[in-house]
Amino acid sequence: MKSVWRIAGLIFCAFLLLIPVYGQVAARMSTQPLEEKLGSLPGKEGLKILAMGHRALVSEWIFFRVMTYYGGRIDQEAPASRRNVDYPSMYYFLDTSTYIDPYNIDSYYFAQAILTWEFGMIREVNVLLDRGMEHRTWDFYLPFFAGFNSFYFLKDYKEAGRYMERASRIAGDPLFANLAARFLYESDETDTAISFLKVMIEKTWNQKVRRSLETRLGALEAVRALEKAARQFEDRFHRKPGNMHDLLNAGLISRIPQDPYGGMFYLDDHGRIRTTSKFAIKSKNDRSN
Fold first, then answer.
1. Which helix (H) or strand (E) holds 131?
2. Among candidate residues 278, 281, 273, 276, the one with its CA nearest the CA of residue 190
């Protein structure tokens, strides 16, 4: 018993000694460019031990660090500048956050909303979601997210169906069973992405993340309208449209929809709808060139 109190005393003294050091580090960090402000963390195993009975609080603090950092970046320059975002460190922070407290839903939602769409970290995010599923056994959203990632990004329809079947068992909702079947049969990707984004927007409380998702939703809804018109053109004329003006001249669209990312929609050589923006907002400097 004495050894336990001795260890606790040493930890407390270590924290007291770290307070002035932390103050110096914080002062230095406040003068650094935003991309350097995320900083670093100790090893997640050691941090989990040090957190002791405050793991939920420490986990949420780490998540808040990521939110503050990311919010500062998008306020500065919009998505094109995210080339300078330290997204590997963002992932490490979220990995640490969910390792310390695997019940922290905020970290899972942020990883799904931002790291997948903005930085293409699909497999990495699914690793986090798998961790959450082991503990949040009642939460059907985590397998729902992982199933969408497997279907839409990874084109792994069997894995997507497996995740959706799990979501269906937890939620008891036939919607997920139907999605599982659609995934296994390689269903329409744009419609599925739109449905998914609507669920994400409904569940996202952070306004900055929500605006990012709403922008992408608007872009995909425009793509869906053009895809529908292109299919109608092919049914009517028995050939693929060559460009957007074919759809206009056939009266299938009244105008070419606006890309909310600032690009222009066009048809590629295979007749698929593309946009010059590649679903990324240009920076102020890019728009002026």
1. helix 122-135
2. 273
pLDDT at 80 over 50: no
Do residues 217 and 200 make contact, with C-beta atoms less than 8 angstroms apart? Answer: no
157-189 per-position pLDDT tens digit: 888 888 988 887 888 776 666 666 556 554 557
- H or E element, residue 108: helix 105-110
As given in the structure block, the two tokens for residue 157 are: 């329809």
Token reading at 211: 């605006």
Q: For the stretch 55-82, what's the b/e string if a residue is b when 16 or more beta carbons lie within 10 angstroms of its beta carbon? A: beebbbebbebbbebbeebbeebbbbbb
Distance, in Å, from the CA atom of 231 to the CA atom of 238, rounded to the nearest integer, reads 10
Compute φ and ψ for 265, nearest 5 degrees.
-75, 145
The sign of the CA dihedral 174, 176, 177, 182 is positive
Phi, psi of 204 (to 5 degrees): -90, 120
> Which stretch of DSSP H or E encloses residue 181?
helix 174-184
pLDDT in tens, 267-283: 988 888 888 887 765 54
Q: Which residue has the higher pLDDT, 207 or 149?
A: 149
Radius of gyration of the chain (CA): 23
Q: What type of residue is 177?
A: A
Dist. CA 78–CA 120, nearest whole Å: 17
Residues 99, 54: Cα–Cα separation, whole Å: 13
Angular region, 213: left φ>0, alpha ψ -120 to 50, beta rest: alpha
CA angle (261 as vertex; 258, 264 as ends), nearest 5: 50
Q: Structure pTM?
A: 0.63
Q: Are the CB atoms for 210 and 117 separated by under 8 Å? A: no
User: Is the CA virtual torsion 77, 73, 119, 168 positive or negative?
Assistant: negative
Instruction: Match 């679903």 to its residue by tokens.
Output: 279
Domain locations in the chain?
A: 41-136, 224-288
